[in-house]
Design brief:
Helices cover 50% and strands 14% of the residues. By secondary structure, the chain is α/β, with parallel strands linked by helices.
């Protein structure tokens, strides 16, 4: 309707003999452009297509200028340039390949409905959410299933549980299972210093100890039963009852609301189930004794049944590890992956193994080293004057092995060559950690090729 009024106004100017030729020519130019706008918009509507974002901005600028009474071609051009100057680049302006890359690494916000109906919004990596294991664990959480993760040392079992807790923004509570795990650890009990609430009891009731030793409420808990096959079968019975109740689905016939199950703590007090997700981990299935997995017990089948249908064999997600956890630091990932293979070939995993923790440890150690060196070069004072190096980290790691195995591993991975590579990386440009607008990328095309070859090799051998 507004466009039609503008068109009528312009036509009146064009047909008015009292107007100068220049004015009538300017009105004709404006009319031609306004007609073009109408044609583009009509075609867009009829075809269901969308106008290019930049073209749409120009069209809007012309339309707004005409609505404001601007008819001079020069003035309209000035309006267009002013609008384009402040136009931000949107995702739709990017190439398909660049959009695909951003989608693989961007942070996204998700909302998860928890067990008692509370919703929690959190930010996480899109690539982490897309992992099959992550999707399975989140599904189990929503279904109130207990999950059990088993696999070799360093495959990321505990890390996965920790990341799920971070994702849910719930408190992670860990019971380190062994033959020495006591009822006090699980359900609580009296000590010389007074009553101590057990870890299961804390997680069950969503009341955990803060830094002052006071029990405070939290939104939810992930209970990690770490190394569950190592727990004494008699002590495991204390967990068995609670693990069975987590899945209880009883409904109050009057209110039609769920009746939340209860357990008793070390004082005999009844505790109602709140937001709880239980994750057990171990190197072997629960009903297995493995001579290479020290001090594990073959558990009663009833304990295995508590995780039935939600037991997963975990293998390292090498691509995720390289492209997300160690993004930009392929040279460290490559070396530690070679160490991982060497440990396997030399049957030394009982002494130490390469995990995500050692990778993150090495990455962060290198960052601190470069931060301190950057400050020195810019005459800034730092409490650390002699920062720990990657060599210090690796020497500490290699010291965990027996001499013969250590020497075999170091020779196989060509440790001196790695140290030379580190020296080369030290000469590359570095953005300090305080600069959140930039990220470091020390990767080279050759390194990425080598890394992808290593992924294939590890998937076949490990």
């Amino acid at each position: 309707m507004e466009n039609e009024k503008q068109i009528d106004r312009l036509k009146a100017i064009i047909n008015d003999p009292s107007k100068s030729d220049k004015t009538r020519q300017t009105a004709q130019t404006a009319l031609d452009r306004l007609t073009a706008i109408g044609g583009v918009q009509m075609a867009s509507v009829q075809s269901g297509a969308s106008v290019d974002p930049t073209a749409q901005t120009i069209l809007d600028a012309i339309s707004n200028a005409l609505k404001s009474g601007i008819t001079s071609a020069t003035d309209i051009q000035r309006e267009i340039e002013e609008v384009l100057k402040y136009r931000k680049i949107n995702e739709s302006d990017l190439s398909d390949s660049l959009r695909a890359y951003i989608s693989s690494t961007k942070k996204i916000e998700i909302t998860i409905t928890q067990l008692s109906g509370i919703k929690s919004a959190t930010t996480t990596s899109d690539s982490f959410l897309k992992l099959d294991l992550t999707q399975n664990l989140l599904s189990d959480m929503k279904a109130r299933n207990n999950s059990y993760l088993y696999g070799g040392a360093g495959t990321g079992k505990t890390y996965s549980a920790e990341e799920i807790a971070n994702l849910l923004d719930w408190k992670l509570i860990t019971i380190n299972c062994s033959q020495y795990t006591s009822p006090l650890d699980i359900l609580g009990g009296q000590t010389i210093e007074g009553y101590v609430e057990g870890r299961l009891s804390q997680a069950w009731s969503n009341r955990v100890y803060d830094n002052t030793g006071k029990l405070v409420p939290v939104e939810g808990c992930v209970l990690l039963l770490d190394e569950l096959p190592k727990i004494d079968p008699n002590t495991a019975g204390l967990l068995n009852d609670a693990l069975a109740k987590v899945k209880t689905d009883k409904i109050d016939p009057t209110t039609m609301l769920p009746i939340m199950p209860k357990i008793r703590n070390g004082r005999g007090e009844e505790m109602e189930l709140k937001n709880l997700y239980v994750v057990g981990t171990g190197n072997v299935p629960l009903n297995t004794i493995d001579p290479d997995y020290e001090a594990n017990f073959k558990q009663d089948l009833s304990l295995q049944d508590r995780f039935i249908g939600s037991t997963y064999k975990v293998k390292v997600a090498y691509s995720y590890e390289l492209n997300n956890i160690m993004s930009g630091y392929a040279f460290i990932w490559i070396f530690l992956s070679k160490v991982r293979l060497a440990i396997h070939r030399n049957k030394a995993s009982a002494q130490a193994f390469v995990s995500l923790r050692i990778m993150i440890n090495a990455r962060e150690t290198y960052r601190v080293y470069r931060d301190v060196e950057y400050d020195k070069a810019n005459s800034k004072l730092d409490m650390v004057t002699k920062p720990k190096t990657l060599k210090d980290t690796m020497d500490s790691f290699f010291s965990l092995f027996k001499n013969a195995q250590r020497d075999a591993i170091i020779n196989e991975v060509d440790y001196p060559k790695f140290l030379q590579i580190v020296e080369q990386k030290n000469k590359m440009q570095y953005f300090p950690s305080v600069d959140k607008t930039k990220s470091n990328n020390f990767n080279t095309p050759d390194e990425m090729t080598e890394a992808n070859d290593l992924i294939i090799e590890m998937e076949k051998e490990l």
